[in-house]
Amino acid sequence: MTGSDKGGGYTGAETTGFVSPAGDHIEGPIDLSQILDLRRPHRFPVRVLGEALVERGILPGDILITDTAAEPRHGSVAIIMVGGEVLVAQLAFRRGQWWLRPGRRDQPPVPVGEDTQLWAVVAALVRERV
Q1: Which of 32, 67, 83, 84 has its CA 20 to 30 A from that of 119?
Q2: Topology of 30-126 in CATH?
Q3: Tell me, what DSSP letter sits at residue 10?
Q4: The dihedral of CA 30, 90, 120, 79: what is its sign?
């Protein structure tokens, strides 16, 4: 291309030679709303503010895709409300009772009490910066 060329960019129409065999495998635009199922009324994105689950790989600024209709499972991460405070915690089911496992291994699990409400289970994680 010379300095006098004007154009709107490469369209592929000027290609000579063989067609790329990879052309059949090019994916179209990625729709995160569809992949993450955000059109469902019980799916919500929630941004992480603290460092409670850094050891689990959940970093401040990450976006958790939560599902308020999902059933809690042992080992899942959930949004919990305890005494009016919103927390992100890993769930554990032991000895017939639910427990909240803190992100740091040096802290003991906390039994789920009467003042604890499960708001949503985390279904996916979106990270804006790598």
Answers
A1: 32
A2: Umud Fragment, subunit A (2.10.109)
A3: -
A4: negative
Buried/exposed code over 109-118 (b: 16+ C-beta within 10 A; e: otherwise): bbebeeebeb
Terminal C-alpha separation, the chain = 34
- C-beta neighbour count of 1 within 10 angstroms: 7
- pLDDT 10s digits, 10-30: 455 555 666 666 666 677 888
By the 8 A CB rule, do 54 and 103 touch? yes
The pLDDT tens digits for 61-90 are 999 999 999 999 999 999 999 888 888 999
Distances 22 to 18, 66, 93 between C-alpha atoms, Å: 11, 36, 48
| Strands, sheet with 77-82, edge to edge from the N-terminal-most edge strand | 43-47, 63-67, 116-126, 77-82, 85-94, 97-101, 110-111
For the chain, domain boundaries: 30-126
